[in-house]
TrEMBL record:
Residues 109-127 have a biased composition (Basic and acidic residues). Residues 30-103 form the Putative mannosyltransferase YkcA/B-like C-terminal domain. This is Putative mannosyltransferase YkcA/B-like C-terminal domain-containing protein. Coiled coil: none annotated. Pfam families: YkcB_C. InterPro entries: YkcA/B-like_C. It comes from the Bacteria. Residues 99-108 have a biased composition (Gly residues). Residues 1-22, 99-145 are annotated as: Disordered.
Length: 145
């Protein structure tokens, strides 16, 4: 057995654990969906806090954006910068947890946001996965800006 060092991913262990609002578990349905539907974007998706993003980054070794910094209260991007990133196809999915940016609901691209159904082509999309396991995955594209 080799010695190892680094942050522990045990539940409730501080950074990334439940005491800091994160989880060491990933929503596999969410991960499968954003991975399968990634069309070359830099980020798989965005969340409000680094503690939400960390387990996905560790599991996939891919970029997941924490739009609110470590705790979710530090807005790292302006609206204009976010629009630019969407237009440059750097990001298109945003997981907004029920405790996140002030609400859940419909999307701007024809999805009703209520049943996890993509109203444009009937493709299921995950609804949960944010802090406390509840949230909505939004897709924002250039046409919806």
């Amino acid at each position: 057995m080799l010695p190892e060092a680094g942050p522990s991913l045990k539940q409730g262990s501080g950074i990334g654990g439940s005491r800091m609002g994160g989880s060491s578990e990933v929503n596999t349905k969410l991960l499968d969906y954003v991975t399968k539907n990634n069309t070359g974007e830099t980020y798989l998706f965005a969340v409000s806090r680094a503690t939400e993003a960390s387990s996905y980054i560790i599991k996939t070794d891919k970029a997941v954006m924490a739009m609110g910094g470590f705790s979710g209260s530090d807005p790292i991007l302006t609206v204009d910068k976010l629009k630019e990133m969407v237009q440059n196809k750097e990001i298109k999915y945003f997981l907004i947890s029920s405790g996140g940016f002030g609400g859940v609901g419909g999307t701007s691209d024809g999805r009703d946001g209520q049943d996890g159904q993509d109203d444009r082509n009937g493709q299921d999309r995950p609804r949960s996965g944010g802090m406390n396991g509840s949230g909505t995955l939004y897709e924002i594209n250039v046409d919806s800006l």
